[in-house]
Amino acid sequence: MKSPVGTLLSNRYRLDAQVGTGGMSTVYRAFDTVLERQVAIKLMHREIAGDSDQLERFRREARAVAQLNHPHVVGVIDAGEESGDGEGDGFATPYIVFEYVEGETLKQRIRRNGRLPIAESLAYSIEIARALGAAHERQIVHRDVKPQNVLIDEEGAAKVTDFGIARTLHQDGLTADGRVLGTTDYVSPEQALGHAVSGQSDLYSLGVVLFEMLTGDVPFKGENQIAVAMKHVREQLPDVQLRRPEVSAALAAVLDRATDKELDRRYPDAQAMIAELEDVLAIETARTGQVTGEATTVLRSLPEQTRKRVPLRARSSTKALLGLLVLIIAAAGALAYVAAQQTERGTGQREQVAPTPPGLQAVGLRQRAVSDFDPLGGDGEHPEQTSALVDGVSSTTWATERYDDGLLGKEGVGVVIDASPGVAARKLTIRTPAPGFEASIWVAPGGLPSKEPPRGWTLVSAPTITVGASEEIDLDTASNRYRRYLVWITKLPPDEQLVRISELLLYQ
Questions:
Q1: How confident is the model over 379-408, as pLDDT tens digits?
Q2: How far apart are CA 490 and CA 497, in angstroms?
Q3: Of 270, 352, 384, 502, which residue is 20 to 30 A from 197 by alpha carbon distance?
Q4: What are the Cα distances from residue 196, in Å, to 104, 173, 192, 272?
Q5: How far apart are CA 149 and CA 154, in angstroms?
């Protein structure tokens, strides 16, 4: 059955205009002749209505979204099937009736405006995350989070739609292993590889949407969709602060965590991501002293403790001098709070753990930018401690494993700094409470080599350096930008069974 404009479905819903189409269905603006209101109708394409898998996926969408009653999810009103039109195939054409949202998609908004205001980007991210959180609580994963599937209504609120490939976590589902569903511009690494997905996969996609709102473009481009998907698997997202310098370290840290390739480092659930997004929105509001649009609405919905950090004057366009002073104090307090609570960029100068060498500039590093490196066997070198190397706190340290005889017994171990997307560093400072160990510095331009130096690595320091308590090491990168910087430890300190390092600071 073809259903052009003017068709009356189930003697009730009149199709007034086509507003969108996809591989499985077409969406119409329609009129409910019984309740006399506008609705949206998603009508499955007749030519695939006979495919039992596609039909079940379509019906599953109706069942999934019907479970959700959330202000930021486009709600299901009704569902039905229109009988055949005499063509003899006997297939009924299913449809879903949604609330009609007057407005535009988030993608259209980005295309129209370019990058969005930071506070507005945060507000939309919070609303989308709240919608996803509600779905995840019911064990429903969206699997296709993208700005095309977020509607902005006339009042400016975001509403998530199109759960067409959603599935419940306790359901076997209809997607075969290895088949990628979703739009690859936003696809999570695990979904791109055809692995099992969870709510964390939706959060990765939301992180990419946030990146696009902040920069006006998607992070990866490629010759085809597969090439883009593989970049999500293999490459870190571009540094958002390079593309938009006014993005704060706290916001960049949220983006880093949301889009981490490793699931154990990504936000465990929507609530954790929401909490940090709310903190950053409070910071941004306190810092700028004003906010407009949907951010104003979201601010009113923040938890009381978070909202207390935002002066009421920040919601007004006029502020007295005292109001400005309060904003400055609030911003400082909020920044200190988030610095203590979440991951951040920056080499951690809060204690002035080492002065910046004259003529150089500190390289901003994510707190998860350092990883242990033990290519010659063993159980690793305390990977859980590596964040201490860039936290700006001299009392926290990373240590190698303990070597009982005082000898490494192998060529070396170390730590790798990921200076994504790459820097031409000129100096590296190592701070240690146990000086006297020997090390050298090596670099690699892209992926992490799996072998110890020199295979895949390039030496940029003296071949052997005896590291003092605060050792400034000159680097010869020949102005080439390198992503990986390896501190390769080849000898333990005298009379010691391990190496301890408190800070690594990179300069360009």
A1: 678 888 888 898 777 778 899 988 877 788
A2: 13
A3: 384
A4: 32, 11, 10, 21
A5: 16
Per the DSSP assignment, residues forming a β-bridge with 176 are: none
Nearest CA to 277 among 241, 256, 251, 301? 251
Tokens of residue 373, six digits: 């490196």
- Top-confidence residue, 254 or 318: 254
Q: HSE (CB half, 13 Å, CA atoms) of 11?
A: 0
Residues 419/483, Cβ–Cβ less than 8 Å: yes
Q: Rounded to the nearest 5°, which phi and psi values hold at 441? A: -115, 130
Predicted TM-score of the model (pTM) = 0.61
Instruction: Round to whole Å and give the CA distance between 494 and 437.
Output: 7
Length of the chain: 508
CB atoms within 10 A of CB 407: 10
Of 298, 301, 327, the residue nearest 312 (C-alpha): 327
Report DSSP state, residue 383: G
What does the CA dihedral 38, 301, 273, 291 come to, rounded to 10 degrees?
90
- Mean pLDDT computed over 119-138: 94
- Report the distance separating Cα 277 and Cα 248, nearest Å: 12
Q: What's the confidence (pLDDT) of residue 324?
A: 38
Find the helix or strand (DSSP H, E) in which 203 lies. Answer: helix 199-215
298 vs 119: CA distance, rounded Å: 10
- Token couple for 349: 């100068």
* pLDDT at 2 (0 to 100): 52
Query: What tokens appear for 17 in the block?
Result: 């205009």
Q: How far apart are CA 26 and CA 134, in angstroms?
A: 26
- Strand ranges of the sheet holding 427-431, from the earlier edge strand across to the other edge: 470-474, 427-431, 503-507
496 residue type, one letter: E
Distance between the two ends of the chain, CA-based, in angstroms? 66
Catalytic residue (choose from 144, 202, 279, 391): 144
- Give the residue carrying structure tokens 């980007």: 121
- Give CA–CA dist 214/115, Å, rounded: 5
- Strand-pairing partners, residue 373, are 414
* HSE, side-chain direction, 13 A CA sphere, residue 383: 11
